Amino acid sequence: MEHNFIAALRALATDPAARRLLDDAAVLAFGDTRLVLTYDMIVEGVHFLPGDPPEDVAWKLVAVNLSDLAAKGAVPVGMLCGYMLSGSAEWDAAFARGLAEVGVFFAVPLLGGDTVSGPPGAARSFGLTAIGRAEGEVPSRAGARAGDTIWVTGTIGDAGAGLRAARGLLDAPALLDRYRRPQPRLAAGQALAPLVSAMMDVSDGLLIDAERVAAASGVRIYIDLERVPLSDAYRAACGGDRDDVLAAASAGDDYELLFAAPDTLAIRETAGRLGLPLTPVGRAAAGHGLALSWRGAIIDHDGPLGWEHGSR
Amino acid sequence: MEHNFIAALRALATDPAARRLLDDAAVLAFGDTRLVLTYDMIVEGVHFLPGDPPEDVAWKLVAVNLSDLAAKGAVPVGMLCGYMLSGSAEWDAAFARGLAEVGVFFAVPLLGGDTVSGPPGAARSFGLTAIGRAEGEVPSRAGARAGDTIWVTGTIGDAGAGLRAARGLLDAPALLDRYRRPQPRLAAGQALAPLVSAMMDVSDGLLIDAERVAAASGVRIYIDLERVPLSDAYRAACGGDRDDVLAAASAGDDYELLFAAPDTLAIRETAGRLGLPLTPVGRAAAGHGLALSWRGAIIDHDGPLGWEHGSR
The whole model's pTM is what? Predict the structure, then answer.
């Protein structure tokens, strides 16, 4: 059902700036510079838990949108927030405090939006448009070339483990914030944009998002699972064996950057300058689809590659 | 409660582009041009009726946002749509058809957005960001000067009567479309922007919106009720006496433009060129607040001036 609806929208989105609704953001030429636009919604019970602190919900709403800007190498210039009053003045006030905090943290001004009353008992849902500016070419998901190395920033799987911790299914308090307060990789995106052939943010799971890069670029992507970077906290809570890595690489909400680029000194130096690990996890080759290996042997994997909720 | 939340947001919105959240849109200098950004939500049971055709809901979602661009004299360049799946594939498909239709009608490309699943039974709610571009000064609500004439485009009150017709409270089928398919005054806004001292769109009611212009501009606005332009269909269905005009002027959803400008030949000629009535309905003077008159006599009016749902 959702696929049909998205297909119908895609048929409308014929403007080149829409990037066929297949990218993280719309990119519009505006004079000499590029306007990068993203719009993500979060819904209680789907993207956050009913018990999550409202300050963290505000943080997440902003962060997931900024992560899309990061993937395009854009500098945020503002945001518009769509807010449905929750029925609790206390909750609303805490959300507003969270919005203030995250706006200051990432230096993104609130420019506008809309506040509406919802019907009684409605699930909380919020939308946000983030606006960014970028110079020069704006990377898409579609530019990966055979021979490129596939990289990720930071560590993978922490937010998925944090979600399990928030649900009381895992004892990993150190990872809660990775789920509730994602850190969009803005500086990394801006530094990497001129160096990459394709880039996207990892919102639905490293594997499913790598498959999307492969599909958009018309290449086959090999991921060497043993190279997927795990945090010490993840290893301590979940382990580091093949299935643990598979779980990490198919969990959502990482908001790291996944990119294809030749393995050059410039990339290596960028990691040092950013103080952020940039880890080669695989390569692009001729062909299509995704192939997974563990210590040199291709493996079969029938399980899910990540979240398929149709959001961009 | 809503006022507290909006006050909290306003305290965040210190960037000049935010116009203190008091205008119809955010206006951001972007290279040599101005980027005009608006974000409006519509909620079932609040902004549209559960029985409204989904094509019309899509039309209205787009039109209310384009109306904000019109009020700033902006040319639409694109839109991003936030859609919560309704639980009915048929409804969703009809909405997508409506979105296609309105996008073609106003030549606004769909650039992106987000589609999410809502919890079962959730009221339908949708958001939209419209992006426009404007050259030169972008009118705000705050520029009306003592001595200006106050004008409106088109006719007033038709959508309010159309809403009553949709609810079965009034026999006025000709006015249904004014409620369900508002016509943002894009061409008028673009033509008028260089000529006006203040402009906004009439979304909540002519009187309440005139009061907002008065407050933002620091002037007193006199509205001569007998000059408020009514359509023949409105007069036929509702009458044209003082109370009928008051009802028209305090009903929402007109999406006409309200502006302050000297009464010049340029304005009069613009009306002819647009083929759209531009009607002087009052004047701005020193002082503050709103004053209403009927055939030369100031009247007391204790009733509501329009909708106060806190949306922009």
Answer: 0.93
Q: Which amino acid is at B307?
A: W
Interface test with A, best of B114, B117, B128, B140 (most A CBs within 10 A): B114
| Core vs surface per residue B223-252: b (16+ CB within 10 A) or e | bbbeebbbbebbbebbeeeeebbbbbbbbb
Asked if A312 is an interface residue toward chain B (Cβ–Cβ < 8 A), one would say yes
Residues 28-67 (A) with a CB less than 8 A from some CB of B? 28, 30-33, 35, 37-47
CB contact under 8 A, B114 and A103: no
Give all strands (DSSP E) within B20-144, no chain letters.
Answer: 26-30, 33-43, 75-85, 110-117, 125-134
User: What are the residues whose beta carbons fall under 8 Å from the beta carbon of A41, sequence distance 6 or more?
Assistant: A47, A125, A126, A127, A128, A311, B82, B84, B114, B116, B127
A76 touches chain B (CB under 8 A): no
A-chain CB neighbours of B21 within 8 Å are 112-113
Amino acid identity of residue B204, one-letter, is D
Q: Do B5 and A33 touch (CB under 8 A)?
A: no
Alpha carbon distance B258, B205 (integer Å): 10
User: Token digits for B273?
Assistant: 């060129």
Q: Which of A76, A62, A68, A181 shows the shortest CA–CA distance to B15?
A: A76
> Which has the higher per-residue pLDDT, B121 or A195?
A195
Give per-residue pLDDT as tens, A228-259.
999 999 999 999 999 999 999 999 899 999 99
Phi first, then psi, for residue B13 (nearest 5°) are -90, 65
Contact status, residue B36 vs residue B25, Cβ threshold 8 Å: yes
φ, ψ of residue B16 in degrees (nearest 5): -55, -30
A83, A126, B50 from A87: Cα distances, Å: 12, 14, 21
Nearest CA to A173 among A256, A242, A233, A106? A233
Reported as half-sphere exposure (CB side, CA atoms, 13 A), residue A247 has a value of: 17
Tell me how close the Cα of B227 comes to any Cα of chain A, in angstroms: 32
Q: Three-class SS of residue B143?
A: coil
ipTM: 0.90
> What mean pLDDT is predicted for residues B89-99?
95
DSSP A124: P
pLDDT number for residue A1:
58
Sorted by sequence, the CB contacts under 8 Å of residue A243 that are 6+ apart come out as none
CA distance B228 to chain A (A): 29
Inform me whether the C-beta atom of residue B85 falls under 8 Å from chain A C-beta atoms: yes
Q: What is the pLDDT of residues B286-298, one digit of tens each?
A: 999 999 999 999 9
Residues facing residue B84 across a β-bridge: B116
